[in-house]
UniProtKB/TrEMBL annotation:
CC per GO annotation: cytoplasm
Oligomer and partners: Monomer. Forms homodimers during oxidative stress. Interacts (via N-terminus) with elongation factor EEF1A1 (via middle-region); the interaction is direct and competes with EEF1A1 binding to guanyl-nucleotide exchange factor EEF1B2, thereby inhibiting GDP for GTP exchange and reactivation of EEF1A1. Interacts with nuclear transport receptors XPO4, IPO5/RANBP5, IPO7, IPO9 and KPNB1 as well as GCN1L1/GCN1 and LRPPRC probably through their HEAT repeats. Binds NCOA5/CIA.
Gene Ontology molecular-function annotations: catalytic activity
Domain NAD(P)-binding: 4-151
Family annotation (Pfam families): NAD_binding_10 (PF13460)
GO process terms (BP): import into nucleus
Protein name: Protein HTATIP2
Length: 169
C-alpha cells in the first residue's frame, strides 16, 4: 500500500508502476468538499491517476462511476462522472471497465442522515426489486474482481446496476 498526496500526484508516479490492473473508487461529495473540491477529486484526481497507471504499464483500468453518468448532464454530479468516464477512456487502456452502480448500500463512519434514510428505504425495496435501485458495496467489489478475472474482448465495457448484480453474485 502506498500513501500518496493527491495534490502532488505526479510526484508519486512510482506507486503506479508495474501493475497490470488498476481499480479506482475515489470520490467525495459536494457537501463535504464544495463544488470545486468535488470536481478536483472525482474528475481531476481520477483522470491523473489513470494517466499515471497507464504510463506505469496498467493494461486494465476499472472505474467506479455512477448510474446516470453523462458528460452533457445539467447536474454537476452526473456531469462530472460522465466527464471522468470520457477522460479515463481516452487514456488508452487495453481494457477499461466502467461500473455505474445505483445507490451504494454500506455502513459509513461519517454521518449522512439523508443517505442513511435512503439506504434504509432502498434496502427494504431491494427485497422486492433487488437490482433496481441499489447495490451492496460488497457486490460491487466482487463484480470488479470478476470483470478482471473474466475480461471480455471489448476495449471499453460499461456495467449498469443490473449487470453489476449479476457479475457480483
Amino acid at each position: 500500500q502506498a500513501v500518496v498526496d493527491f495534490e502532488r500526484l505526479g510526484e508519486h508516479a512510482a506507486a503506479f508502476q508495474g501493475h497490470d490492473v488498476g481499480f479506482c473508487c475515489l470520490g467525495t461529495t459536494r457537501a463535504k468538499a464544495g463544488a470545486d473540491g468535488f470536481i478536483r477529486v472525482d474528475r481531476d484526481y481520477v483522470a491523473q491517476a489513470a494517466e499515471l497507471a497507464r504510463a506505469g504499464g496498467c493494461k486494465h483500468f476499472v472505474l467506479q462511476s455512477s448510474r446516470g453518468a453523462n458528460a452533457q448532464s445539467r447536474f454537476l454530479y452526473l456531469r462530472v462522472k460522465g466527464e471522468v468516464e470520457n477522460l479515463v477512456q481516452a487514456v488508452g487502456f487495453d481494457h477499461c471497465t466502467i461500473f455505474r452502480p445505483a445507490v451504494l448500500l454500506c455502513k459509513r463512519q461519517e454521518s449522512r442522515p439523508m443517505e442513511w434514510i435512503a439506504q434504509k428505504f432502498l434496502g427494504a425495496v431491494a427485497w422486492v426489486f433487488p437490482t433496481a435501485y441499489s447495490v451492496p458495496v460488497e457486490m460491487v467489489a466482487r463484480a470488479m474482481v470478476a470483470c478482471v478475472l473474466q475480461p471480455g474482448k471489448e476495449k471499453v465495457k460499461v456495467l449498469e446496476n443490473r449487470a453489476i448484480h449479476e457479475l457480483g453474485k
